[in-house]
Design brief:
This protein has about 230 residues and is mainly alpha-helical. The protein is built from 13 helices and no strands. α5 crosses α6 and α12 crosses α13. The protein is globular and about 60 Å long. The mean pLDDT is about 90.
Length: about 230
């Protein structure tokens, strides 16, 4: 019981640190964050802080993993959809984008944590937690596609097609997320991408699904209808 209480106390302190780090990074940016400032706003010693996170890189990956956990909670909406596996897959992609748009600070943490300059400097345990979480989310998307292979006309011995589709749609959504955050995009497209990111993903995702063999009437409208139903949640 004592050991359990210690673990719970440590977990709560780690959540406090991550919440404080998120607020501090939103204010000054990750590269300007000082561990001493973070310790101060959390009301703990610097030594205690380093007892949880061995470096700023570990801290950033901890933030990314927490963000991924918050993101994963949204996917229950897709799992509970009363439609086909392909529709669930589409909804999950749309929810993924909406989460990033609504929480740019969390997406930025996830984005930065993927850089080799970050994860190569992190401890093995933190990096492994990051990989495990990404694998779990990727596997969920792949499970939707695998269940819907017949709907896509994909033979059981050609699963690489659904894997490529999963990778392609992930790249599409991730790329839009990055561009939405970039001021460079505004110089080329004004506010068009930022304001219409969901619709742009809808059309791009529909085109990818059609290319993979999805045969539905007016695929783009089908995807946009799903977005109207779920993305505002």
């Amino acid at each position: 019981m004592v050991a359990q209480n210690r673990m719970e106390k440590r977990q709560k302190r780690e959540e406090l640190i991550l919440d404080g780090a998120g607020e501090l990074i939103a204010e000054v940016g990750f590269f300007e964050l000082k561990m001493s400032d973070l310790a101060r706003i959390c009301g703990i010693s610097v030594g205690t802080l380093y007892g949880h996170f061995a470096s700023k890189e570990d801290l950033l990956i901890g933030l990314a993993v927490m963000a991924g956990s918050k993101r994963a909670e949204k996917f229950d909406i897709a799992r509970n959809h009363d439609g086909s596996a392909i529709e669930k897959y589409i909804i999950a992609n749309l929810l993924d984008l909406r989460f990033s748009i609504n929480h740019p600070q969390w997406f930025e943490a996830e984005y930065l944590a993927l850089a080799p300059s970050i994860w190569k400097r992190a401890t093995y345990a933190r990096h492994q937690a990051q990989l495990d979480q990404i694998n779990a989310i990727t596997s969920m998307f792949q499970a939707f596609l695998s269940e819907g292979e017949a709907e896509l006309g994909i033979a059981s011995d050609m699963t690489s097609r659904s894997r490529n589709l999963n990778l392609g749609s992930w790249g599409l959504g991730y790329g839009i997320n990055v561009l939405v955050l970039s001021e460079i995009t505004d110089r080329h497209y004004g506010q068009e991408l930022r304001k219409n990111a969901v619709n742009i993903l809808c059309d791009g995702l529909a085109d990818l699904m059609i290319g993979a063999g999805w045969q539905v009437e007016d695929a783009r409208q089908k995807v946009r209808t799903l977005a109207d139903r779920y993305v505002a949640l």
